[in-house]
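Hi V.,

You were right to ask for the full record rather than a summary. Here it is.
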Amino acid sequence: MATEVNVPTLGESIVEATVGEWLKQPGDPVKADEPIVSLETDKVAVEVPSPVAGVMGQHAVAVGDNVAVGALLATIEAGGAGAATPTPAPAPAPAPAAPAPTLASSPAATAGQQAPASGDTPAALSPSVRRAVLETGVDPATVKGTGKDGRLTKDDVLAAAATPAAPAPSTEPVPTPSVAASTGRKEERVRMTRLRQTVAKRLKDAQNTAAMLTTFNDVDMSAVIEARTKYKDLFEKKHGVRLGFMGFFVKAACMALKDVPAVNGQIDGEEIVYHDYADISVAVSAPQGLVVPVIRDADQLSVAGIEKTIGDFGKRAKDGTLKMEEMKGGTFTISNGGVFGSLMSTPIINPPQSAVLGLHRIEDRPVVRDGQVVVRPMMYLALSYDHRLIDGREAVTFLVALKNAIEDPTRILIDL
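Predicted structure:
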């Protein structure tokens, strides 16, 4: 008797998803509640668990297919095989033998026992991982995955590409460069992930709807750097999390939002909605791209509470375990392009929000202090905002309040 596995309810207003990765192949033993497939929604990846224990049946859809809520994904075949297989170690071995011919013959033979251990056949790799494999030429069978259940991530492939090649790959990659040289220029077409499609649509809608403008300022990071250097060890020892710069900026932004409530508001039809709370969206890096979870009531949190929340978001974004409700809402966004080396940018607002703060890299620059030219660690700040709601005076006032709090962190402590 077979049990059907259908697309679960994915959240409010989400009626469709894309099959991102099959975690179990036909014939694989499956435990109850064990993830069998990863679905990509507009916001996050969702793993669908098996409702029963048994053996993986046939896939009803392929990687890249769009599926609606309630659609059939696969079947789980009931029987003793599902319970008996985990006990003997050799039992799972025949399953990987089928896809082996689709790989290059020599790497399959060389990898030997590594391929069954990782389970990352080309069909099972996520789109971002497959792209990284194609771009770097790394053999996925030779890379140890650090993702959930030992699966490969994009970072694993990039790290393997940056590592000097072992003796084994040197025998087979010899023909590969010659083939590339003989074929000349190449093109590759990769289907956009549902997340990337949604991001593209929302950003373009923001440009089409909002009257966007960006105002710049710079900030001397000397005081924050000094405080971080002085207290980072004690901070980590007490709170179990590293003291970064985002904690200071989130707190400073919350203070500035209280001074300039329009920056924390939004337009709803012919009305303006002002919020007496600050739910700060923070952009964090994930294997499938940037995601923007929300720090709820950030104005009520301490710097330590903010750093813990951001650290948790970053870890779960990399693991793909962020929940959809954690991505909803937000009254103001902070995006830190400085971690990637950005000097200056004009970030795009995240509707229905009315403003976004862009942080950039810190670099030593000459500035004038008390009539003297001195070198200070400076950062450019960029505030993009909807000019329909926020005037230039309010945007500048917000940035100046933020700048004052960062250059004199005592203001954060005494709420000044």
